[in-house]
Amino acid sequence: LKQLNPTPQQIEQEQLPESLINLFMNNPDELLDYLEYAVKQYPKEHLVSTVYDTILELLLQKYSTSTTEDKKEQDRLSHQIITLLQDSKIGIDVTRAMVACQKYNFKAGVICLYDKAKLYQQILQYQMKNKESDKIVSTCLKYGDEDPQLWIQALSYFSKLKRADGCRKEIQQILKYIDEKDLLSPLLVIQTLSNNESTSLDLLKDYLIRKLHNEQTQIEKDQSEIRRFRQESELFVEK
């Protein structure tokens, strides 16, 4: 098969390489080798999405059966899968790709597809569902400027999470951003954090003191501007 050098017309007429997939159904490794060869040799415009969907499925199968001891192989397969999902020049079926990634529990692929579609809230919800609390703040930092609501959802999540440390570190980071961007009123912050019995009072105290200080600074700045404006107005009237 590797010696075949079909013309574009033959590829289209004979529906290569998808027409040969059934020949390899009992030999997934050989099928993967053939399809990977085919996508390098045949023009992309003549390849249907079935080819790429099949490659993705085969790579996910290999990844799911690889052992954690062989981390190098897992990393290689993971990189290959992500590269395939990110390639905008191929006609991969996004819905089928999402189903396949979920089927084989390839979380990086699910996140990649959500990212590609700019579905940032789905990324956060997926991480919450999988209890990946260590990744939630990073997700907010990465996408929060485009979708500030992520920070509010993250605060709500950690306010309900039962943990011995009261999620102090994460809540502090989230409150800092919410305060800087003025995403929530202090009252709503207090109401949200009241869901977490482990939240220490000093955490709320620090937030409220910082908030009051910022507001006082803004008031003083506004008053200074008002005085300056009055003085300029009086000078203008005198002239």
From TrEMBL:
GO terms for biological process: endosome organization; intracellular protein transport; organelle fusion; vacuole organization; vesicle docking involved in exocytosis. Coiled coil: none annotated. It comes from the Eukaryota. One of its GO terms (cellular component) is late endosome membrane. It is found in: Late endosome membrane. GO terms for molecular function: protein-macromolecule adaptor activity; zinc ion binding. PROSITE patterns: CHCR (PS50236). Pfam families: TPR_PEP5_VPS11. Keywords: Membrane, Metal-binding, Zinc, Zinc-finger. CHCR repeats lie at residues 4-167. The keyword Thylakoid does not apply. It is a peripheral membrane protein. This is Uncharacterized protein.
